[in-house]
Amino acid sequence: MVLPIARELPRIGIRCMAIAPGIFHTPMMDSMTPEVQASLASQVPFPNRLGRPEEFAQLVASIFEISMLNGETIRLDGAIRMQPK
Model-level pTM? Predict the structure, then answer.
């Protein structure tokens, strides 16, 4: 949906971008035991840890700064891929 929106709205100066985050350290994550957190972090290939909120914020700032970015989904997930059930 990002690309069709990006192609529809440039005439009024709107870009459309999406971020597909992986496993991030959030307040909800704090309620989990350290063992669960470590297990989740171990699933991330590189870097082998949970994402940090400031990394998400850095990406948002970069998207705003680089006006050529448009119509794309950026994965911010350390290359993790969830297995099908």
Answer: 0.86
